[in-house]
Amino acid sequence: MESISIEGTPKTPAVGFNAETGVIEIKGRSIPENSIEFYRPLVEWLEDYSKNPQKLTTVNIQLEYFNTSSSKCILDVFKKLESIKKARNDVIINWYYEEDDEDMLEAGEDYESIIRIPFKMIEVVD
Amino acid sequence: MSFDIDEQFSKMNDGEVLLAYKGSITAQLITNVLGVVETKLDHVIDKSITKKKIYNVLVESLQNLYHHVDDLPSEFNSGLDMHFGIFVVSKIDDQYQIRTGNFIKTEKIKSLQERLDKIKSLSRDELKELYKFVLNNQKFSDKGGGGLGLIDIARRTEGNVDYEFNDYNTNYSFFILNIKI
User: Fold this and answer.
1) Distance CA A6, CA A13 (A)
2) CA distance A70 to chain B (A)
3) Among residues A16, A28, A63, B43, which one has the fewest Cβ atoms lying within 10 Å of its Cβ?
4) For chain A, what percentages of helix, strand and coil (3-state, to nearest 5) are there?
């Protein structure tokens, strides 16, 4: 299965999805006006990956900003991961947030309470 | 006498204005504005968290504006662009203010007003629950974020959101949203 590697832009995050290592990363800013377009291929990739996932999938989400248009798409990503976990595979989700950024920590907690995978909250100190 | 846009715009240009705009609201414009305001905020604010909050609210409010500027009918005949909107980012006393203005069909006022009043009346925890509920249950349209934008703004500003509707003509009013951070 092909990996996904996308460079970040001022409005969209850097993305690295690797089926061989089982490492899934989204980093940077996610503030496009229409997020569905950007996230659709990512959700489709996860759909494929979920048919034959690694024993352990490690997810690193490190967002500086994301808008509400992205928030639903990010939830779709998490829901795919939840289904991988439900099929008895290990999934670790690392949610990174900048020191003192309570809003971003709370955003991670919101997702954690919707999907049934515990998040590891990691404060990034400059 | 009907509502005067220019008068309203100059009224909104008070305090220390970081950026003021009147005209067509496009995706490219928003990208440019976000870049400019971010650079300015870097110069005037030291605290990264405050900067982030302002930037976040600015993104939501401008994208909200972008998604909701109603196409003006050709017979509108005001000499204004079809996707007309205004916004001002300024600092008044010790608060940052983001104000946006756009035309709205008069028939849409009631439901928007009810939503705003409801959001304004909710506590921090209630807003969090509403946000999660809408996030998890509501289908998003291609147009927008399914109504999460206003909830998100209210959460980040602790409900510091005011609004007004000004009659423009029989079919349209001018909606102003005033956010304080």
Assistant:
1) 8
2) 8
3) B43
4) 35, 35, 30
Q: Which domain holds residue B23?
A: 5-107+159-180
Question: Which pLDDT score, from 0 to 100, does residue A33 have?
Answer: 86
Cβ neighbours of B60 in A, within 8 Å = 67-68
Q: Is residue B115 part of a domain?
A: no
| Minimum-distance CB partner of B136 among A33, A75, A100 | A75
Cβ atoms B143, B65 nearer than 8 A: no
Query: What is the count of residue pairs from A and B with beta carbons less than 8 Å apart?
Result: 64
Q: How far is B46 from chain A (nearest CA, A)?
A: 14
Checking if the pLDDT of A113 tops 80, the result is: yes
Q: Which of B27, B53, B132 sits opposite A103 (nearest CB)?
A: B53
Q: B52–A103: do the CB atoms touch at under 8 Å?
A: yes
Tally the domains of chain B. Answer: 1
Q: pLDDT tens digit string along B46-103? A: 788 888 999 999 999 999 999 888 667 666 666 777 788 999 999 998 899 999 999 9
Please check the confidence at residue B141 and state whether its pLDDT lies above 80: no
Chain B residues touching residue A65 (CB < 8 angstroms): 52, 55-56, 59
Give the class (CATH, top level) of A4-124. alpha beta
Which of B132, B134, B138 should we substitute to test contact with A (largest number of A Cβ atoms within 10 Å)?
B132
Which tokens sit at A95?
Answer: 């949610």
Tell me how close the Cα of B132 comes to any Cα of chain A, in angstroms: 7
Spans of all domains in chain A:
4-124
pLDDT tens per residue across span B15-36: 899 999 999 999 899 999 999 9
Question: B169-179 burial, b for 16+ CB within 10 Å, e for fewer?
Answer: eeebbbbbbbb
Residue B68 lies inside a defined structural domain of this protein: yes
pLDDT band at A108 (very low <50, low <70, confident <90, very high): very high
CATH number for position B40: 3.30.565
Q: Is B53 on the interface with A (CB under 8 A)?
A: yes
pLDDT, tens only, A15-56: 999 999 999 999 999 999 889 999 999 999 999 999 999 999
Helix, strand, or coil (residue B26): coil
Asked if residue B124 belongs to a domain, the reply is no
Residue B112 lies in a domain: no
